[in-house]
Write a structure and sequence with these properties.
The protein is mainly beta. The protein contains four helices and 26 strands. The strands form seven sheets. An eight-stranded mixed sheet has the order 4-3-5-6-16-15-14-9.
């Protein structure tokens, strides 16, 4: 998504509110394609245009805007307005601190290894470890034992375990082939289950593996059924820290596969598989890896909003006017709430949220705006209020026809029970529709 305006933040009623679609790009995510990531039936790229997928389509709206089985992931990041997505092409080099390499890891915030099938050289291992140790984020996606797609004698389990020789990240990848499971055990010390892209409730395994944790730095995020959610085995998704950086591990490539890609590949739409919340996991993890937080701009903590993604209908939200939960458009999952879309409308949704004392609560939500209005005059508005105080205002003049994120710091309300309210109003002429999804308050 191209930026319509560059506004870093604006101050309303003492709160800094940063609509991501109006802000300059903050994070660069580099997807690797140097390790046979498209061998066999795999198509683990965000786009056939490398290194910049924007050359294929500068304003992507859906996963088919770019060609690759990871295009849904890349497009979702791009459309926040806070991410630049790049690919390290097969001819590229994995380096750290090489000023002559435009795609050197020192230039990126997160590096994704989507089921690599070629062993790393000693120099590449050193570069990746230095990148993480100095504050970078590394996303490692494995597949099942024996998944040697290019038949060179090394599968992704061996490649990634080889990268981790010496146990730098505090976990190892198990040599397993788990055929079909839907892990849903949420780790008691999970870092990325809650975040700006929603709340994850589980993942899928369609021929994949798990990790064994052997250090306090490594946390299990999602566990297989029958395994302790505070244990060291059975982790389908795990995170860890190393130096100043962060690491995420996913034990299967199927969850990141959006089912679309280059012809001739056998793909599976795990990204949208209803048995898991794979998109939420991938995107929240990317946020944590790139920024060090999953709250969309600061802090962390426990999710305080119930049903912020509207996947369970309207409860416990209070809906006013013609506001309705709908499947017509959604940021993550299949549901969002729709407000206005007609002249003289007055729609609203609200929910009471208890905030613990001594915390720094952070509100985040995603909005999609369509309008028949033109120009920059705000005739139709979506006002976001906390206990009656406005913390954000969007309108027909906001970024349209794309999802974008907005955040607000609610530290002043710590220790209180607040009412978060979204109120939409429409003028007398050309209507504007507001969709809201993934409402989150982390504290």
């Amino acid at each position: 998504m191209r930026h319509i305006a560059l506004v870093a933040a604006f101050l309303i009623a003492g709160f800094v509110v940063a609509p991501a679609a109006h802000a300059a790009t903050t994070y660069t995510v580099l997807f690797d394609d140097t390790k046979a990531e498209t061998a066999g039936n795999a198509d683990w790229i965000v786009s056939t245009s490398m290194p910049d997928p924007l050359a294929q389509n500068p304003a992507p709206t859906t996963e088919t805007s770019w060609t690759g089985a990871l295009s849904a992931w890349g497009v979702a990041l791009q459309r926040t307005g806070r991410y630049a997505v790049k690919t390290l092409p097969p001819s590229g080099a994995i380096t750290y601190g090489n000023s002559s390499n435009a795609l050197d890891l020192s230039h990126v915030n997160a590096f994704v290894l989507p089921e690599p099938n070629v062993l790393f050289t000693a120099a590449e291992k050193t570069a990746i470890l230095q990148f993480v140790q100095n504050g970078g984020g590394l996303f490692m996606i494995s597949d099942h034992n024996g998944s040697d797609r290019n038949n060179d004698g090394s599968d992704s389990v061996a490649v990634l375990n080889g990268l981790m020789s010496g146990n730098p990240f505090g976990f190892s990848i198990d040599k397993l082939d788990i055929s079909n499971e839907n892990p849903s055990g949420i780790g008691t010390s999970a870092r990325i289950v809650n975040g700006p892209f929603g709340t994850a409730t589980g993942s899928i395994i369609r021929d994949g593996t798990t990790a064994t944790l052997n250090s306090s730095a490594a946390h299990g995020e999602i566990y297989r059924a029958g395994y302790s959610t505070s244990g060291t085995t059975g982790a389908a998704f795990a995170t860890s820290t190393y130096g100043s950086g962060r690491v995420a591990f996913w034990g299967d490539s199927s969850p990141m596969d959006d089912g679309t890609g280059q012809s001739g590949n056998t793909l599976y739409n795990g990204w949208d598989d209803p048995a898991g919340t794979d998109a939420t996991l991938a995107l929240n993890a990317t946020e944590w890896l790139a920024s060090g937080t999953v709250s969309g701009g600061g802090g962390g903590g426990t999710e305080r909003v119930t049903n912020g993604g509207f996947e369970s209908g309207s409860s416990p939200w209070t809906l006013g006017g013609a506001a309705a939960v709908t499947t017509a458009r959604a940021h993550a999952g299949t549901h969002a709430v729709a407000l206005c879309g007609a002249n003289n409308c007055a729609d609203s949704i609200s929910q009471s949220v208890a905030l613990p004392a001594g915390t720094s609560p952070q509100l985040s939500f995603d909005t999609y705006v369509t309008t028949q209005e033109t120009g920059t005059t705000a005739y139709d508005k979506l006002t976001v209020q906390v206990n009656g105080t406005t913390v954000a205002t969007l309108s027909n003049a906001s970024s349209t026809n794309a999802w974008f994120a907005t955040t607000a710091n609610l530290s002043a309300y710590a220790g209180q029970t607040i009412t978060v309210r979204f109120a939409a109003t429409g003028g007398t002429k050309l209507p504007t529709s507001f969709w809201v999804d993934d409402v989150s308050v982390l504290a």
